[in-house]
Amino acid sequence: MEQFSQTMLQLGAEIYKEFIYILPYLLIGVLCEATIRTFKWHVKIRKALTHYGMLAIPVATLLGLFSPLCACATLPLVISLLVAGLPLAPAMALLVTAPIMSPTGYTMISGMLGISWATTILVCAGILGLVAGYVTHLLRPYGFTEDAIFRKQLPAGDFHDPDYPVESLRCECGQQLSHRVDRCTHNKFLVFMARFWEGSLKIGKFALFGLLIEVVALMFIPSEWITGLLEGDTLASILTLSLSTVFLHMPQVTAASMLFGFYLPEPGQVIPLAKGAGIILLIGAPVTALPVMGVFITMFKPRVLALYLAICIGGPLALALLLRALPITL
Questions:
Q1: Which of 1, 79, 280, 309 is most buried, taking the most CB atoms under 10 A from its CB?
Q2: Where are the chain's structural domains?
């Protein structure tokens, strides 16, 4: 029991020390996200998606890059847009890009891994979103129209309605602190502070989860094996990471925190992360969350899930191999 207590104390001390390292980047990212949510910039663009026609794919990709939502929060939104008449192609672009990049994600990756890595992930996320959208559009004649993708017809109604009959799609955002503050005060500053608090809790949770994975891995897994995967640029290491991330629920902030905590670089120090491994962890891991797979299986026909997995596994793998072949240094 004494040894267990010492291990837990050591674990807590390591997590605390590393959390203090990443705290400034986390706060800056949360500040950006709270500003976007307070002025509802992402909501305004989202409402306009159904009016853009073929331009809806790049617009949805752009929205996904700026959206503060993770995969689990984006999927119900995407389903509601599909029910409202949005074609599957821009919906797929939004669903793919939103978990990969956000203002918080860009800020934290910039601070922890460097601006070159953050910009690379941003560009790769945009490419993957466009590919997802246009591939889905080309597949429309083969059973990927909006009226042929659901397992059963969804009930009409507003997902924000607390009485909406499909519980897994029912949005509970009205119960959030920021919405209650908005209803009671209509004061933008108070709403901003509430959204900042909500974002701090949500993103802090993901960051702590990433640090926990990293600390536990360092305590129980030989560090040489981990560095071999992260720093190795061989095809075998890229394939190993690609297959293993499919079964992980690792949002963007969690993946970045885990990598930063593993190396804890000094200011100005470059993390020796291989290009292929970085792409797989920072792009592949966030888009294949298991809760999202569960909703896909429940709501959509199997071909839609197969298309999503093909894009979310094959896309990052192709980008990793492409970046690995390019003569650039990150």
A1: 280
A2: 2-325
